[in-house]
Amino acid sequence: MLLNSSVEYAERIAFIYRSADAEFEVNYQKLFDDALILAKAFSSHKVRKGSKVMLLSDNRYGWIVTDFALVSLGAISVPRGSDTPTRELEFILQHAECEFLVIETEMLLKAHEEMLKGLKNLKAIFVIEGGKTHRWFDNIYSYNDILKDRSISNSDTEHFIAQRYALSAEDIFTLIYTSGTTGVPKGVLLTHRNIMYNVCHLPELIDLQQDDSWVSILPSWHIFERAAEYVALSSGCSVVYSSVKTFAADLEKYQPTMVATVPRLWESMYSKVNQTLEKQNRRKARIFKLLVKISARYNYLRRIVRNQRPVFKKVFFLRRFWQKITAGLLLLLLTPLNLVAKKQLLLVQDKFGGRLRMAISGGGSLPPYLDEWIDAIGIRIVNAYGMTECAPAIAGRSVHCEVFGTLGPPIKNTELRIVGDDGDVLEAGEVGEIQLRGEQVFPGYYDNEEENAKAFTADGFFKTGDLGKLTVTGELVITGRSKEVIVLASGENIDPSRIESEITKLPFVSDAVLVGQDKKGLGALIVPDFEQLRSFISGKFDQGAETTDKLVMDKQSLNRVKAEINRLLHPKHGFKPFEKLQNIHFLDKEFKMGEELTNTLKKKRHVIETKYQEVITKILK
Question: What is the reported pTM?
Fold first, then answer.
């Protein structure tokens, strides 16, 4: 893929990135040259086909160059982000039996220095960003040390190109350790076939064009972002490396047509837009929310008329006909207001650069209220579902699927089924475990026969551990994760994500984690926005602003917030009586990536529950 793109799009811009406050543009020919030079240097240090190389780095141009250099040699990259804790890093290095380590900076090397000294398998350590560090009898080299000779001869080019013939589709491409939302990281082996399945089939899913440009913010080592970058490069697109700090500004500056994000980033944007309007002018904020409601309602009614809403069991044709007539009449009445709403909401699109034609949300389930909000403001959202074990694509609401409120059908050549507890395949509308089989499915976990035995069925289907159901027309809807389901002492099963999604609609809730496994009732650990919380308490209950410490401990404040939450979790909103909260607790610290959050900002429930075990026991006596 790299060789083809470097010939076909040689002069096109492949990457835009910043370094030391300067901006750089790299075309496809330069990417080819840089990968070749680094591959030659690695080879001289005995990096070979099958060598396992830990790549410990965040997003940067050097990451993708290193990645392609290793691919060309047939080496197996073992990527992680710079925030990986030392103990976890040591486990991965030892379990994967890594022979080499590529590390982003000298500072990062120093942070793990003591641990690395104790590892006997490491033949060499390469530092991407650093001065000349190599000394006699030392196995540490900076890229400046190993890249002294940057010349490329004809034989170098021929050798680099010819290396593709030493690779097969079944060779291991990478070894990615899961971020551990449910326990000890597992090493996911992905082959060239797994990766290329996504590269070949995802462009059609999103109708990718050569002149599309992407703004990249997710960790490059994570398979969702990695696949997005490979897909972009396969079609000659350009990728801008951004960061959490500069993301909003980069959207306006670079005006991308495509962006790949995770639900948590959309939650953040949703909160920021609404909070900014509230601070500027409450009347304007109310008008904006009304416009969003009008647009969302119009879109909903239009989809009923066009058969674009999910259907889980066949509806009698006369009833469906009546639904369409009713929706059509309401649609006519709403049309003038919708025209006004859509025109005004174009201003919000400017915040995303004004050219964004498609946003892809993956790495977790997008809550329905966010899906509707993004759709209402006029951004086409591809709500996608994938897993590291599938490199990552499983399903996506592509440009060819208009059934809103779903993840679309399984991707091309993917067999997907919903299975009950007894192993029987379920009908449309019935909830069970999602299982699948296809070219994107990994061959297994590295050196973990116990997990491999659990992961696959006798007929070769991968057991995802996710719960879902299919519409009558074959679109997928995720209903929860079987490993995350909370079982109360009464035996009731509860999916926490749906309730957490509802709670975070409140402006004073930054984040929430539902707890209550084996307890009589449910509780929630809440990360509040203290400024919004004070405003809520003083505005709702005519009470003066309180200090953060007092708000965290004050029983009256806790009870008032709990009552407000339980008002949302009412049966009239589709919640069951046992899904109300028995108690809540305010946390005074936000969840951090690499600690309570994975690198795609999903919550590590086992970590949170262990860390706050005493609090959970106290609030759910």
Answer: 0.83
